UniProtKB/TrEMBL annotation:
One of its GO terms (biological process) is intraciliary transport. One of its GO terms (molecular function) is dynein light chain binding. GO terms for cellular component: cilium; cytoplasmic dynein complex. PANTHER family: CYTOPLASMIC DYNEIN 2 INTERMEDIATE CHAIN 1, WD REPEAT DOMAIN 60. Transmembrane segments: none annotated. InterPro entries: DYNC2I1, WD40/YVTN_repeat-like_dom_sf, WD40_repeat_dom_sf, WD40_rpt. It comes from the Eukaryota. This is Uncharacterized protein.
Length: 253
C-alpha cells in the first residue's frame, strides 16, 4: 500500500495509507475510482522527547534512498532523524552549531548522506548523516540581510554545488560552493511575498529539456523562470563528473 507522510507543528508524524476503491456509478458510463487516505500509524515527538516541553516542528523531509527514515527540524534548532517504522527509535540528533531555531530542510538530490537546514538566524547548515555537528555553515555576514531568517531551500538538481535560498526579507540568494562558501554569488530581491520555491527535476539524459525555477506568491500567482545556461542543465557526462567532484569535496569537510 502506498504511504503518505505528514507532520504538524505539535510533532505528530502520521503515516497515511492510500486506498483506491472502484465505484460503480449509474451517473457515468464508466466506473469511477475513489481515493481515500487511511491513518496507518502515528508518532508523537512530544511524547518521545518530554524534555522539549514547547517543541514546535517546522519541516520534514524523507531520506531519498530509504523512505522509512525522516528528518524533522525543530524550534530548538535540533534536526531529528527518525526510523518511521521502528517504533520510538531516534536514529540521530543533529546539532545546530548556534543557538537558533531550524525552519526548513532540503535533502541532497545526489546522495542520501547529506542534508541542508535553514535557520532563523540566517544560517544554512550542511549536514552529513554520519556526523552530529554541521560540516559547513553558510552565512552572508556582509549582507544587509545577514540575519534574515531562512524560510525556503532548494538544492539544484542539475548543479551539485548550487543552492537556492529564500529569506524572510523576500530575497533569493544563490550559493555556488564551487566559487565561494563565504558569500552567495547572487542575491535577488522580489516585491511579491514568495511562499513556494521549486526547481524542475533532475537531468534525464535529454539536453533539450530546459531547467526551470518555479516561484509561488501569496496572491496565488505562479512564475516559471527559465534558468540560464550557467544554472541550467548540462551534458550528462559533465553532470556526472560534477557530482563526483562535489561528493569528493564534501567528504573532506
Amino acid at each position: 500500500m502506498p504511504l503518505i507522510c505528514s507532520l504538524d507543528e505539535d510533532g505528530e508524524i502520521i503515516l497515511w495509507g492510500v486506498v483506491v476503491k472502484q465505484n460503480s456509478s449509474k451517473t457515468f458510463e464508466s466506473d469511477s475510482k475513489e481515493v481515500m487516505l487511511v491513518k496507518n500509524s502515528c508518532i508523537s515527538l512530544k511524547t518521545m522527547h518530554p524534555d522539549f516541553r514547547d517543541l514546535v516542528c517546522t519541516d520534514l523531509v524523507l531520506d531519498i534512498s530509504n523512505n522509512d527514515y525522516a528528518y524533522v527540524s525543530t524550534n530548538y534548532g535540533f534536526i531529528l532523524h527518525y526510523h518511521l517504522k521502528g517504533g520510538s527509535n531516534t536514529v540521530k540528533t543533529f546539532h545546530p552549531g548556534t543557538d537558533s531555531s531550524a525552519n526548513c530542510l532540503e535533502a541532497c538530490p545526489f546522495s542520501s548522506n547529506y542534508l541542508l537546514a535553514g535557520f532563523m538566524n540566517g544560517n544554512v547548515n550542511l549536514y552529513s548523516r554520519l556526523v552530529d555537528n554541521p560540516l559547513m555553515i553558510l552565512s552572508d555576514k556582509e549582507s544587509s540581510v545577514s540575519n534574515s531568517s531562512i524560510q525556503l531551500i532548494q538544492w539544484s538538481k542539475t548543479r551539485p554545488f548550487v543552492i537556492y535560498v529564500k529569506d524572510a526579507a523576500n530575497n533569493i540568494h544563490i550559493w555556488d560552493l564551487s566559487e565561494s562558501d563565504i558569500f552567495p554569488i547572487y542575491s535577488i530581491p522580489f516585491q511579491k511575498n514568495i511562499t513556494c520555491l521549486k526547481l524542475s527535476p533532475a537531468i534525464d539524459g535529454s539536453e533539450d529539456n530546459r531547467a526551470f525555477l518555479v516561484i509561488g506568491t501569496d496572491d496565488g500567482s505562479v512564475y516559471m523562470h527559465n534558468l540560464s545556461e550557467e544554472h541550467g542543465k548540462q551534458p550528462k557526462s559533465i553532470y556526472e563528473e560534477h557530482i563526483k567532484t562535489f561528493l569528493n569535496y564534501v567528504s573532506r569537510l
